[in-house]
Specification:
Elements: H1 5-23, E1 26-27, E2 41-42, E3 47-48, H2 63-77, E4 84-89, E5 101-106, H3 109-115
Length: 116
Amino acid sequence: MARARGENKDRSLVHEEWIARRYGGHRTSNSGASDLDPGDVRCPNDLFECKTTGFPGHPSTAPLLHVFTKVADEAYAAGLEPAVALQYFDPDNFLANDEGWVNLVVRTVEYDLAHG
């Protein structure tokens, strides 16, 4: 059965509020849809764009979640914290380093908050 658009928006709002509470921020007006108030959650040092997939009865099948879960299983077994390093070649991107790569790291929110 297809999910109603309102239910998707409700899940997004709950996710944004969850992030805002944990990072001491607030949801932006229009949840990122405004040029005057960009992003979904504004915090003292961070601007978040929030994305949510899956819902009860229909778990997410996102490829990044699959990779992170595998890394977490291996990391926890070794007494380490999981992280996924992503690298995108885009030399015209303002985030690119001198070699043209944009480098990102993905960790859990719980790790981020504990080691802020």
